[in-house]
Specification:
Layout (H helix, E strand, L loop, with lengths): L1 H6 E6 L2 H8 L7 E5 L6 H11 L3 E5 L5 H10 L4 E4 L7 H11 L4 E5 L7 E4 L2 H14 L22 E8 H11 L17 H15 L10 E5 L5 H9 L4 E6 L2 H11 L5 E5 L8 E8 L7 H10 L1 E9 L1 H13 L3 E8 L2 E4 L8 E4 L2 E7 L1
Parallel strand pairs: 1-2, 1-4, 2-3, 8-9, 8-11, 9-10, 11-12
Antiparallel strand pairs: 5-7, 6-7, 12-16, 13-16, 14-15
């Protein structure tokens, strides 16, 4: 524990209570920065920092202050940096984690959905100090019990703190896979290249599409919506050697990589646009893993606009059931399908200590 404390020189978190709840065992001697919109929290913050043994405390009144402050700290040395896990639910926690990771390549985060590297069980004295601080910070407010209960379980037990060393790219991939954020600055942010799950999904998708190779006639016009960096687009060219492919991608950086990869191919036209803004008229339209990003109304409108002989989808769970029902209502019938079970694996598919559960999917080829 003492060794970890010496190395913990920088902690950046979203609220004072989170320092106590998650980082008390590494706060001794650290420079502590807390992001809060409450400008009056300065005295409380300083008291918390003193109680935890922090060397200095700093109040950051906006996430926009995180980058400049972290860069200043980096220029003074090469600190061990602790911040929030990207696996946390609170949006501000995730924002803080990403902003810190854009300055530092290596970070230490609470082991939420990760393999712990360091795990500390508080002794009796440290536990009592932590419990006392939590009680000070979480004072009972006269707003009544929630949900009819008069007590709530302390789900983040204060008696143990575990941390995991991660790379900045791990942080980005964790958010790309679990939240609606898209980080196009990172190549392959979803870990397609290394993920065994994604490799299997790609192979099953290709197998489902192979049934069209012997169709009469086979597809001559294909629209690949959400083509990203062009892995499936490239495969479509070999699968249907006489077809032209329109690769649609809305993210500018992905579209640029798509052009680099396939822009010179005579049978490919790269279209940088939203799926809502392009005509979906072809022999085959691919709508795999893209409808999540649309509102219900936009999704319904898009499905109304599809004019194709065949349609490919890849969705699972409750969302998949909604998509399948919507297509059936519009007269689409399943030609063939393949189901892929969910899988727990590293966010990069290979080495990352941060883990995610890829939820599984049902790949369906439809005809109308």
């Amino acid at each position: 524990m003492a060794e970890t404390q010496k190395a913990a020189t920088l902690i950046v978190v979203a609220h004072p209570e989170d320092v106590v709840r998650l980082f008390s065992t590494v706060a001794g001697g650290a420079d502590l920065a807390v992001v809060t919109e409450d400008g009056g929290a300065g005295r409380e913050l300083e008291a918390v920092g003193r109680a935890l043994g922090a060397r200095t405390t700093h109040l950051l009144l906006s996430p926009s202050e995180i980058g400049p402050w972290c860069r200043e700290q980096r220029e003074q040395g090469n600190p061990r940096v602790f911040t929030h896990s990207p696996q946390e639910e609170a949006p501000l926690h995730r924002e803080v984690a990403v902003l810190v990771s854009r300055v530092f390549e290596r970070l230490w985060v609470p082991s939420t959905g990760a393999r712990p590297t360091v795990c500390t069980v508080l002794d009796d004295a440290a536990f009592e100090r932590k419990l006392g601080l939590l009680n000070t910070l979480y004072r009972e407010r006269p707003d009544g019990a929630q949900g009819g209960a008069c007590t709530d379980p302390l789900r983040d037990g204060p008696g143990i703190e575990a941390f995991t060393e991660v790379r900045s790219t791990d942080m980005v991939r964790a958010l790309s896979l679990t939240k609606p954020e898209i980080f196009s600055e990172l190549a392959d942010p979803w870990g397609f290249a290394g993920s065994s799950y994604e490799g299997k999904r790609f192979a099953l998708t290709a197998k489902v599409l192979e049934s069209l190779c012997h169709a009469s006639p086979p597809p001559r016009r294909v629209v690949d919506v959400g083509a990203c960096e062009g892995m499936m687009t490239e495969h479509l060219l070999s699968l249907f050697p006489h077809a032209s492919v329109q690769a649609v991608e809305s993210e500018p950086r992905f579209a640029a990589r798509l052009r680099e990869r396939l822009g010179g191919h005579a049978r490919v036209r790269v279209v940088e646009a939203s799926a809502e803004d392009v005509a979906l008229e072809a022999d085959l339209v691919l709508l795999a893993e893209v409808l999540y990003y649309l509102s219900d109304d936009a999704c319904a409108d898009l499905l109304d606009r599809v004019r194709a002989s065949h349609l490919l989808t890849s969705y699972g769970g409750g969302f998949g059931a909604k998509v399948h029902a919507a297509l059936a209502e519009r007269g689409w019938k399943v030609v063939t399908s393949s189901t892929l079970a969910g899988r727990i694996e590293p966010v990069d598919g290979v080495w990352s200590p941060l883990l995610v559960r890829r939820a599984g999917t049902e790949i369906r080829l439809w005809k109308r």
